[in-house]
Design brief:
With about 450 residues, this protein is of the alpha+beta class. It contains 10 helices and 20 strands. It has 2 domains: about 1-205, PmbA/TldD fold, CATH 3.30.2290; about 210-435, no CATH class. Helix 1 (about 1-15) packs across helix 2 (about 75-90) and helix 3 (about 120-130) runs parallel beside helix 4.
Length: about 450
């Protein structure tokens, strides 16, 4: 197990410290399969094994940090890491003291290993292609284990590993019309995949109907979990960080300064214990199981990373100031009842190109995408041509929110910039009245 290798390497590096130096060692890694599909056939396949070691060499209030890739050969890795330490030691005297340097000094060792019950990639892909036979499917499959470790010269040792799959795909109909879906988690269930594929076939049939263009105005809409995720991603952009709150840059400034509230049914957590990332930070702080961001519509706690916590004198509860395991409480509306509850309006599966149009009022603009349907008298009648919306979160999740679905969906971020993202979302769908479309 690479845990033992990492801890042994950290011990060897700790033995090279001089005087009152402190060393922080942080490890991230993965063993992942990646497969791209086009026209429902495998076009590109590969595997990635990587282990990245980050070092922070501290003396007093001065510190220097760097990182390197590990080979898995102890002699080679020790020599390269020792050389990096020497380089950091040489740089450190020339750096200014860091007033917000903040690292754990109380040794709290932990270990968390999730069940590794992933399907072999070849078997899962065979099931995917069989289920999508006859559809013009394009997507990316990611599957494998990710892990993280922390060790410092004060004796603290932490380890975390998890294993997930993530299949992100769309099926093209014609022109700009397509449907999109995703399936992710830690336990593969063929019946779930088959249900999603059948739902896509039904949506593709609906896509064959003449598209409807609607006039700008306000409409009742249903935001599926994937669409709601785009709204919450915008909130996460400074909405919950302590630094952004204390400097009045949060888009939720009116909740902080004016007591503005969302709908009482809205409760949002950063639920790290239910996510797939480590429960410790790269500076050795142990995260709480969850942080209540919004409770019954009222603002709760901020996320404080080590630097902001040091600056403002609060406890560390996050590695960064953006949620990594977004969890939104369910409502009471059954998903099967959504068309009837929507009655007449838009069923929106996906949004894209979202951005703030008025940050201080938490107003967001963006576009509908993929399968967006017009519903009339509780029945889907036609696909809707792309529309731009411009709406405030205080309306979407506030005064105009009619209900949240009882069922929730697990969504894993499909990002792979540098390494697989561990960000997750557990979200219901949202029924909203008076949603504003501008063109």
């Amino acid at each position: 197990m690479f845990r033992d290798y990492f801890f042994e390497l950290a011990d060897k590096l700790t033995a090279r410290l001089r005087g009152d130096e402190v060393l922080l060692c942080s490890l991230t890694g993965e063993d992942s399969d990646f497969v791209r599909l086009n026209r429902n056939r495998i076009r590109q396949a590969g595997s990635v094994q990587q282990r990245v070691l980050s070092l922070d060499l501290i003396k007093g209030r001065r510190h220097a940090a760097g990182q390197l890739g590990l080979s898995g050969h102890m002699e080679q890795d020790t020599a390269q890491a020792a050389a990096l330490m020497e380089s950091l030691r040489a740089q450190r005297p020339h750096l200014p003291e860091d007033p917000y340097l903040h690292y754990a000094t109380e040794a709290r060792s932990t270990e968390q290993v999730h069940d590794h019950a992933l399907p072999p990639s070849d078997e899962a892909l065979d099931q995917i292609m069989r289920a999508a036979e006859g559809m013009d499917l394009v997507g990316i499959w990611a599957n494998g284990a990710t892990f993280a470790g922390f060790a410092n010269s004060l004796g603290q040792r932490n380890w975390h590993s998890s294993a997930t799959f993530n299949f992100d795909w769309s099926c093209h109909h014609a022109g700009d019309k397509a449907v999109k879906n995703g399936y992710a988690g830690s336990r593969w269930q063929l019946e779930v995949l088959l249900a999603k594929m059948e739902a896509m076939r039904a949506e593709l049939e609906l896509m064959q109907r003449p598209p409807k263009t609607i006039a700008p105005g306000r409409y009742r809409v249903y935001l599926a979990p994937a669409a709601l995720r785009e709204i919450l991603d915008m909130l996460a952009w400074g909405g919950f960080g302590l630094k952004s709150h204390r400097t009045a840059q949060t888009p939720l400034i009116k909740m902080v300064r004016e007591g503005r509230r969302l709908h009482p049914s809205v409760t949002l957590l950063e639920h790290g214990a239910a996510g797939f990332g480590p429960m410790f930070t790269p500076h050795g702080f142990i995260k709480p199981d969850h942080v209540v961001l919004i409770k019954d519509g009222a603002y709760g706690e901020c996320l404080a990373d080590p630097r902001a916590a040091k600056e403002y004198g609060v406890a560390v509860n996050s590695a960064g100031e953006s949620p990594e395991a977004f969890d939104m409480a369910p409502g009471t509306l059954a998903r099967s009842d959504v068309p009837a509850a929507l009655d007449t309006g838009l069923y929106i599966n996906n949004l894209w190109y979202c951005n703030f149009s008025d940050r201080s009022n938490c107003r967001i603009t963006g576009m509908t995408r993929f399968a967006c349907f017009w519903v009339e008298n509780g029945r889907i009648t036609a696909p809707v041509n792309v529309m731009r919306f411009d709406e405030s979160v205080y309306h979407i999740l506030g005064g105009r929110l009619l209900g949240l679905t009882r069922e929730r969906e697990l969504i894993l971020d499909s990002g792979t910039y540098g390494q697989r993202s561990l960000q997750s979302y557990h979200l219901p769908g949202a029924l909203v009245d008076g949603f504003t479309f501008t063109l």
